[in-house]
Structure formats: structure tokens, C-alpha cells
Amino acid sequence: MTYLVRYDEAEKADEMTTKTKTTTEPRSPLSKDRVLRAAVDLADRDGIESLTMRNLASELGVEAMSLYYHVANKEEVLDGIVDLIGNEINVAVGDIEESPAASDWSSAMRRRILTARQVMLRHPWAPGVIESRISISPSIILYYDSLLGLFRRGGFSYDLAHHAMHALGSRALGFSQELFDPADDGNNESDSDEMLAQMAAQVPYLVEMLMEVSHDDPESTLGWCDDQTEFEFGLDLILDGLDRARARA
Amino acid sequence: MTYLVRYDEAEKADEMTTKTKTTTEPRSPLSKDRVLRAAVDLADRDGIESLTMRNLASELGVEAMSLYYHVANKEEVLDGIVDLIGNEINVAVGDIEESPAASDWSSAMRRRILTARQVMLRHPWAPGVIESRISISPSIILYYDSLLGLFRRGGFSYDLAHHAMHALGSRALGFSQELFDPADDGNNESDSDEMLAQMAAQVPYLVEMLMEVSHDDPESTLGWCDDQTEFEFGLDLILDGLDRARARA
DNA sequence: ACCTGAACACCGTTCAAGT
DNA sequence: ACCTGAACACCGTTCAAGT
């Protein structure tokens, strides 16, 4: 009886593999890979704060303690899901030509980074988890190495390429954690004009700026106000600067 | 008796005000400000993971539940300590001349940002907490407004200044969360040569780069491998790019 | 007005025990 | 080999009660 219940719960989380199984084989046993994939799905669906060991277990139709047979602890789960995201990036980026003309390193890198960004937009929790990791994921090392290869074939010294990777920072992975989202001050548009007038005395430049510019496409926003347009502006600024530094060297 | 014990514990956390108090007055009552300052001290001393309501309370010689009389919840504590850091930045930045020659907006901003970075280096937990906040701190809004003023007086349109703030991202506050710290793979130097040889097949460029370049000053490192040299390289790259964009406009 | 004790609903994790 | 029940040491937080 408990058995059947467990089966039903697991089926929800993993319909496809279950359907193709023979009916006598009750459940494919848990594996580290299934645990990690379920963790990504859970974070995608309910947010990273819902990713607790207990929630993750129940998603897999299992008790929390069973997870510890497959992963050492929650840190290993977090390391693991970052690595899955890294794989997703590497697959997505795989289609992009590897050896562009040396003069064109910049647009090749641009395409890679914007592709990585597409992956991040599918997993909005990923930037935060990536930044919380102590050791770096193997798949993301591979991604970095591919960027480094582009720099090298584009004529960068290792020294400059090293600076370049640092200058890109998290932008290399397609995101830039923004710190200030004027749209997210908890006001709707109607009362914001009044609000702005009151703020003008304290932060005159900010208020004037907000009255002139505004964000347009909320769909492309990743967390704060890292929207597509701003991301590309910053990215191109850096890529241009790097190309000038390369030409100078 | 319990009374005296409480007094002694609290004195440790706040010697100065206690010393100047009359001996009949036992304790200055808790206040939101004292709670927040104790929270900053605790995070500075023992790390942000030690900042629990129970730890914070005992630091103040009080029970955890007492804190809730002064702050609504832990989120308010975190918002509050970020605001304290913002104040610290504004004080440190206050000495810098406000109205440089228009042509010199860049070096004036550079000084401000590197000053903000000094504050961050004193509070290594601050970047993480800042990025975790939903609403922005008033003191940091003030800081942003001062940067915006520099852009404006330097000849930037609001539109370009807006892009510029986004391009700077967290660099405006003096940090850039780095994602990859090759030095932190858990190896000491002796076995790393062997290690590198094994990695070479998978990530050839990375290995070759690591053999050529290395980080030198661990003192200037903020968390990952955001060291002073790399931070300034990235910052100058962006500031240069922005100045070119301004001249073009 | 300010602080507390007891309790609640959560965490991650250990360990001995089940099949 | 794989999973579990009970328990532990922590969280943040509520609420009625103390002074």
C-alpha cells in the first residue's frame, strides 16, 4: 500500500521514464543524476528557496534521508545543479563555429555569451547559486576554456586574456547581477509621480533620470534590472575595450 | 543575579557607552541602531553565516525574542546593515571633491568607486548581502545619485548615464563577484603541477594560462579572485569605454 | 515600554535499523 | 544495495506573560 502511493508520487515527477518501463519493474532506483535533475526542475518550478532536501525527496517519491545515499549533502546537490547548467550551456554553445577568423573573435564570443544568457534566463536561480559555490563546476571550467581559446586565436596574450576574463566576470556566463531596480520600489505607476517629487530633494539626478528613461521589456529581465538591452550594452562596451587593448599590445 | 550576568555580557559588546554611563543606570536599552551595529560587528568578526538572531541577541546580552521588539524580522536586520555600509561609503566618499572639471569626470568617479571598494574590503560579507536584498537601501540610493551627478556634470545625457550605471553594475559599489578562482581548487603548489598536466587534455588553454599568469597579492582579494589589479583593469576598461561613448554622442 | 519562556514549524544531518 | 524512522541540533518566529 505505501508502495503504491510512493509509485504514484514518483510518477508525477518523472512521467516519461515511468511510462516506458515494464509494469513489473516498480521504480527505477534513485541515482545521483535523477536527484540532480529533479532539483533543477524543482528550482525552475517553485524557486530556489523551495529546494530543500525534504521537498526534493518528496518530489522523487522518497524520504529525505534516502537522498543521502546518493549525495553527500546539500552542498553537493547545489554543486551538481550548477554543473548541469554548465552542461546545458556547453550544449547550446556547441553549435557555434569554433574557429572564426582571428579578426572576428569578438562577435564569436558575443554569440557564445548571449547563448549562455539564454540558458540563464531559463534558470533564473542559477546566477545566485553559481555565485554561492566555493569550488567551480567542471562543465563551467570547460566553458571558460572555450572562451579562452577564442581569445587566444583572436590574438590575445595569456596575460591579456586573463585580464579579459576578469573584466567580463559574470558577464562571461551571461548575467550581471544588478543592484538597483528603480521599477521595484513597490509603487505602481499612479502614485510614483508624487513619490518622485518627494524624492527629488534628496536624489535630484536619479529622479530626473527616472523621468527620462525607463525599462521597456520586462520579459527579458533577469532578476534585478538586468534586461537584454542593458546587458548587451555593457557586454559590447567591454568587448570593444578588450579589442582595443589587444590592438594596442 | 541574572541581572548582573546580563549586564556583564552586554558590557563586552558595548564597552564605550557603558563606561560613560552612571553606575546606577544599568544598561542603555536596546535600540534598532544598536542591534544593527552589533550585527555588522558580528558579521565582520565571525562571518555572515554566524549572523543568526540567537547569536546576535547573545552578543547584546539579551534573548533572541527581544530583538523582535526593535526589528520586524531578520530581513529588516539585513536591510539595515546594508544601509549602514552605504552610510560608511558615503562618509568615506564625502572627502572627494564634488565638482571636478567636466573633462575629469572619469578620475573623480574612479576615486569614488575605489573608495567604496575599501569599505567593501572591510566588510567582505557585504557584497553577498547587498545582492540578496530586494529593496535598495536609502544610503546606497544617495551614493548612486552622487555617481549620476558626476556623469551629468561630465557631459552625459541621462540616457547614456543610465546605460553607464548598468554597465558598471556592482563595480559602482566597488566589487565584482568573480566566478572562477583557479587558486582555490584545493591544491597546494607542490602537487598542482601534476594536476595541471592531467587537466591539460581537457582544458588546454586554461592550463597554459595558469602556467603563465598568477595572482600575486592575496591581501587585496575580495572573496573569489577579485583582486585589486583585476578590479582596476575592469573598471578602467569600462570607464574608458564610457568616455568614448560620451564623446561619440 | 521593554524583555522573556515556552512553543511551533521548519531546516540539514546522523545513525541504527529495516528489506 | 538501497531506503527509512526516530532523533538531534539548529533555524526564524509567534504569543502570552512577566516587570
Describe this structure in words.
2 copies of one chain form a homodimer. The N terminus of chain A is likely disordered. Chain A has 249 residues and is an all-alpha fold. Helices cover 63% and strands 0% of the residues of chain A. The first copy, chain A, contains 13 helices and no strands. The radius of gyration of chain A is 23 Å and the shape is flat. The interface between A and B is large, with 56 and 56 residues. The structure holds a DNA duplex (19 and 19 nucleotides).
List the defining traits of the structure above.
homodimer, 249 residues, mainly alpha, 13 helices, 63% helix, flat, DNA-binding
Number of helices of chain A: 13
Quote the average pLDDT of chain A: 82
Query: What is the rounded distance between the termini of chain A?
Result: 72 Å
Give the chain pair forming the largest contact, with residue counts: A-B, 56 and 56 residues
Fraction in helix of chain A: 55-70%
Tell me the strand percentage band of chain A.
Answer: under 5%
- Biggest sheet of chain A, open or closed, and with what strands and sense? none
How many β strands of chain A by DSSP?
Answer: 0
Quaternary organization: homodimer
Can you write the helix and strand succession of chain A as a string?
Answer: HHHHHHHHHHHHH
Structural class of chain A: mainly alpha
Unreliable stretches of chain A (pLDDT < 50, length at least 5) are 1-26, 183-190, 216-224
Shape of chain A: flat
How big is the Rg of chain A?
Answer: 23 Å
